[in-house]
Automatic annotation (TrEMBL):
UniProt KW keywords: Membrane, Transferase, Transmembrane, Transmembrane helix
GO cellular component labels: membrane
Membrane topology of this protein: Multi-pass membrane protein
Protein name: Prenyltransferase
GO molecular function, one term: transferase activity, transferring alkyl or aryl (other than methyl) groups
Parts of the chain that traverse the membrane: 12-32, 38-58, 79-111, 127-145, 157-176, 196-222, 229-247, 267-286
Cross-referenced InterPro entries: UbiA_prenyltransferase
Subcellular location: Membrane
Source organism: Niastella populi
Length: 287
């Protein structure tokens, strides 16, 4: 029986925020192995991501709001053991997909542990921590989903897709840290957002997001899929509206760089990007 704190800190609902990369990659696979695509969804969103959340919470023992949880409970040893069991299950199930997929899952788990583990603690280094997150949650995840969901288990995964995935994660990740500067400082952690400052975080985010959309535009236009890009950009428009409105508030008063605004940003961005990439996936049915 899982304790309330374990259930809360696994943060299964947070997997929704990471779903866009899965949908993006899957929408670009020429021929999908449906069974493996479903299995990969289960491995990532119901095992790997929650386990990573739980292990991070076990190491951090947060007393202030964290992603998706306003009042985190204190972790117990059970959370640590559950995260280990979930990781083992993820690796075991990955063997049914491919050895390359299994290797990537193991590498993702190792990177996640190195990010949080007190003995290594990559998260306390702003640039290394940032790059670890965007590479594994972006490019590596895109590679895993594309490769694992393809019928022929191709290794010829489009570099543009991997880069765009990392930049999309990289464009929003600093915003998830913007309200935690003081809590992170007390824990000896300097995030990329803390390094950039409140205003710098918004400027940096705008630049990275622009790069991501530019690469997507180049990719879709090069492949003669202008309509798909226009549909994608249109569905992501509400994100920009909220972002610039929030940035304007932060410029006037940095206290608005808080948990409430951050979670609204996360939720809106996740809904819009999930709908956008899900639309591209459904679009394929009518081609």
């Amino acid at each position: 029986m899982l304790s309330p704190s374990t259930t809360q800190l696994l943060r299964f609902h947070f997997s929704f925020f990471l779903l866009p990369v899965y949908l993006f990659a899957l929408s670009q696979v020429p021929a999908i192995n449906t069974t493996h695509a479903v299995l990969i969804f289960f491995i990532l969103h119901l095992l790997v991501y929650p386990s990573s959340n739980g292990y991070n919470s076990y190491m951090d023992r947060d007393e202030t709001p964290i992603g998706g949880v306003a009042a985190p409970l204190q972790p117990t040893k059970q959370l640590f053991y559950i995260s280990i069991i979930m990781d083992a299950a993820a690796i075991a199930l990955s063997l049914f997909v491919s050895y390359w997929f299994t290797f990537c899952i193991a590498a993702y788990i190792a990177a996640s542990r190195a990010y949080s583990y007190r003995g290594i603690r990559l998260k306390k280094y702003p640039v290394i921590g940032y790059l670890t997150v965007i590479i594994y949650q972006g490019a590596v995840t895109y590679f895993m989903v594309y490769h694992g969901s393809s019928i022929n288990k191709t290794l010829a995964v489009p570099p543009a897709g991997m880069l765009a995935a990392s930049l999309l994660i990289g464009g929003f990740y600093p915003l998830t840290q913007v309200y935690q500067h003081e809590a992170d400082k007390k824990d000896g952690v300097t995030t990329i957002s803390a390094l950039l400052g409140y205003r710098g975080t918004f400027i940096f985010t705008a630049i990275i997001y622009t790069l991501a959309m530019s690469i997507l535009a180049w990719w879709f236009f090069t492949n003669g899929e202008q309509k798909k890009f226009l549909a994608l950009a249109t569905m992501m428009l509400p994100i920009l509206v909220y972002f610039f409105r929030w940035a304007g508030l932060v410029w006037k008063d940095v206290r608005t760089a808080n948990f409430t605004y951050t979670m609204r940003m996360n939720l809106l961005a996740s809904i819009c990007t999930n709908l956008a990439f899900l639309t591209l996936l459904i679009w394929r049915v009518f081609e």
